[in-house]
């Protein structure tokens, strides 16, 4: 199994939404699907999919703050069968490396939940803020920044 990362295309949307559903309600609230749909249609700046043998098994992107100084890791979703197998870490590192190449990016941040913030912590992010029930009831916001 050698995962490959490529840029998202509009034809990937059904599979990305399917990945979200596979991770609902364990990691995402059902209320978040319209948000992802809107993101895919209107807010993507850079978004990627991870494929294994032609199958999309993960996705994630990044966006920028208005002044372009903050690169924001966004919408990481990994197929449950591939969680814990290094796919998420490979995708995260790929995006961090791309963001570090951009001279205008001074901070790399992520907004996640209490369910996966430890993954980001293991990958060099520091917790800055917690907001209870931010995403939906029972899904708290964990705002983090890369400390490298």
From TrEMBL:
The keyword Aminoacyl-tRNA synthetase does not apply. Pfam families: Acetyltransf_1. GO terms for molecular function: acyltransferase activity. Residues 3-148 form the N-acetyltransferase domain. Transmembrane segments: none annotated. InterPro entries: Acyl_CoA_acyltransferase (IPR016181), Bact_Acetyltransf (IPR050832), GNAT_dom (IPR000182). Gene3D superfamilies: 3.40.630.30. The keyword Ribosomal protein does not apply. It comes from the Bacteria. Its EC number is 2.3.-.-. Keywords: Acyltransferase, Transferase. This is GNAT family N-acetyltransferase. It comes from Rufibacter roseus. The lineage of its organism: Bacteria, Pseudomonadati, Bacteroidota, Cytophagia, Cytophagales.
């Amino acid at each position: 199994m050698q995962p490959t990362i490529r840029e998202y295309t509009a034809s990937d949307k059904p599979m990305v939404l399917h990945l979200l559903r596979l991770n609902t309600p364990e990691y995402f609230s059902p209320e978040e699907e319209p948000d992802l749909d809107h993101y895919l249609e209107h807010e993507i700046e850079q978004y990627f999919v991870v494929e294994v043998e032609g199958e999309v098994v993960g996705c994630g992107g990044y966006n920028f703050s208005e002044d372009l100084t903050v690169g924001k890791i966004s919408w990481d979703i990994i197929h449950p069968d591939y969680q814990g197998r290094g796919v998420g870490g490979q995708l995260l590192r790929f995006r961090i490396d791309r963001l570090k190449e951009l001279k205008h990016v001074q901070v790399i941040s992520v907004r996640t939940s209490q369910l996966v913030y430890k993954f980001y912590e293991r990958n060099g992010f520091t917790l800055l803020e917690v907001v209870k029930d931010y995403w939906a009831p029972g899904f708290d916001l964990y705002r983090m920044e890369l400390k490298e």
